[in-house]
Structures are given as structure tokens and as C-alpha cells.
Amino acid sequence: MRAGVGATYRGRFAPSPTGPLHAGSLVAALASWLDARAHSGQWLVRIEDVDLPRCIPGADRAMLQQLAACGLVSDVEPVWQSRRSSIYQQTLEQLIQTQKAYACACSRKDIELALQTMGQEKPRHGELVYPGTCRDSLHGKAGRAWRYRTERAAAPGTEPGRITHWSDRRRGAQQQDVAAEVGDFVLKRADGLFAYQLVVVVDDAAQDITHIVRGEDLADNTARQILLQQALGYATPQYLHTPLVLAADGQKLSKQNGAQALDTSTADAALAALNQAAQCLGLCNHGTRDNRGNALAAWVEQWRATLQSATT
Ligand code: GLU
User: Fold this and answer.
1) Parallel, antiparallel, or unpaired for β 186-188 and 42-47?
2) How far is the CA of 200 from the centre of ligand 1 (A)?
3) CA-to-CA distance for 15 and 46, rounded, in angstroms?
4) Residues with CB under 6 A from ligand 1
5) How far apart, in whole angstroms, are the C-alpha atoms of residue 108 and residue 99?
6) Which terminus of the chain has a lower count of CB atoms within 10 Å, N or C?
7) Which numbered atom of ligand 1 lies nearest the CA of 212?
8) d(Cα 200, Cα 50) in Å, to the nearest integer?
9) Which atom of ligand 1 is nearest to the CA of 214?
10) Terminal Cα distance for the chain, rounded
11) 137-186 pLDDT, tens per residue?
């Protein structure tokens, strides 16, 4: 961790407006904001509404209001991904031209059948490792989606695939063999929507993001994003994945398992929500006697001290 990066630091919080802000998303928002402030950097909010069918109308504005009630306000005008399709399309075309992306005709069923034939049925986190059916030919079928062509060993089984290495500021040294563990991943889906992996990489580069601070549930995407950054000639930001807030049943707290919308309707409620998020990040509790501004300022100091102790 490097403290004092100063004006070069640009961080971001990139919520998907699939519901209101909940306790888990506030942890990522607060951590990314504190890291930006502790580095005297900028903090940007980007609305990741690229998967429109999953987005709830009005949730974007509601989230921005909840963040503002917590004192977390973007340093520049927020960006909406749903307005940036032409940039994503241009980037996809660049990858197609350089043969780093290819059309794929496979449905999920086709992929399952191909994996079964190869004796590899086990899904990885519910995601199937793409067997590479359309890598060299569409076999006379019509392309439905676009995939990123991962680098593979010349003869399968003779050498390991290309391993991506990176360092996470909290989790330490990380590595993933994307070709073997994920396979050629989707950049544009069969329904015409751009995939998260592509849009996040395009926007982080377009916004000159130097530091990404987000929830640990997203850590597994990092290697795919680094591969895309390299393919497109973008710099790789530094990554920090924050601990997840777990629901009472031990599962990841999410909008899907009924995470409560945060109450930020009064100053006391917003401070209580912030205190809960801060606690999750190992920061001290400021109780209800303090105000939001003092609490945030104290957490910035605490965060900065942690950065400094990590560099000494
Ligand atoms: N949009 C993602 C989410 O709401 C965050 C993506 C990211 O930070 O890279 O979970």
C-alpha cells in the first residue's frame, strides 16, 4: 500500500442499481471513499446499469441520495453505463480486429452438452468453463455472443495455461489461470447487452481509475479484468477487496437474499448505518453522540494511519 499518492489517485464506487443501497454496498462505498480521502485523491460514482433488465427504475437516484445522506458525494458528475454503449461497441470491435474476441453460437445447453462429452460437468461457482467450441469456427451456426480469446497452452495438458498474477492490498499475492478456470469469457451477451467484464475495464480506464476498492465477492473477476486491460493497452489499477458483510444465515448479504434497504432518512439513521459499515472495516464506532462529519473525518485519519503503518 502506498500512502500519499496525492492528486494522481482516482478511486470509484460502481453500484448496480438493482435495488436500494444495503449494508454490504455501503461498506464498499465507505471503504472506497475513505481510501480516496486518505490518499488525498478523487472519488467517483459510476452507475453500473448496463444489465438493464436487472435494474430497478429510480434505484440509481435513490442510491445517490442515500450516499449523499451518508456524506459520500462523487467528486465529478456520476456516469451512467447505459449511455455508453457506443464506446463499448468500439472497444469490442478493436478486440475483434486484433483477434482477441470471437463470435460464439453456443447456448448454455450447447455448453453443458459439450462439457458432458468431455467428461467435465462440474460448474465452477455455478458458471460453466467454456469448452472453446466456437474458438476457431462457428460450425455453420449464427453468432449469438462475443467472447474473449484467452491464451492457452499449445497442447492441452502439456504446459500450464498462462497464469495471471496480481497483488491485492488486503488479500496479498493472487493468481488465476483464466483459460483453465474460467475459459473464454463473454464480452457481449446473446441478448445484445455488454458484459460486466468489458464495461468495467473500459470505464475504469476512461475515468483514469488508479485504485479499485470493492467487495470481496468481486475479487474473482480481477484476473479477467487484468487480461482485458493488457489486451487493450490500459494500465492495471491497484486492487483492494473489502470483507463481505454476511447475512444472519452466513450467506453473503445481497439484494437477492433480502438485504434490508439502509435507513438513511435521518441524520441519526445515516450515522448508525455508517457506524455499522465502519465496524465491518475494523474502524472504531462513533456512537450517536457524534455527528457524521466528525465520524468521517476520524475514519479518514484512522485509514491513513493504517496506510502509513503498512508502508513502514
Ligand atoms: N457493479 C458492481 C456491484 O454493484 C460493482 C463492480 C465493481 O466495483 O467492479 O456489485
Assistant:
1) unpaired
2) 8
3) 7
4) 14-16, 48, 200, 214, 218
5) 23
6) C
7) 8
8) 10
9) 8
10) 10
11) 999 999 999 999 998 765 555 555 589 999 999 999 999 999 989 999 99
Amino acid at 138: L
pLDDT of residue 258: 56
Q: Are 22 and 259 in contact (CB under 8 A)?
A: yes
Instruction: Match 450447447 to its residue by C-alpha cell.
Output: 110
Residues of the chain short of pLDDT 70, as ranges, are 1-7, 121-126, 153-161, 247-248, 252-259, 287-289, 312
What is residue 33's three-state secondary structure? helix
Strands (E), the chain: 10-13, 42-47, 79-80, 101-104, 145-148, 164-168, 172-176, 186-188, 211-215, 238-242
Protein residue closest via CA to atom 7 of ligand 1: 14
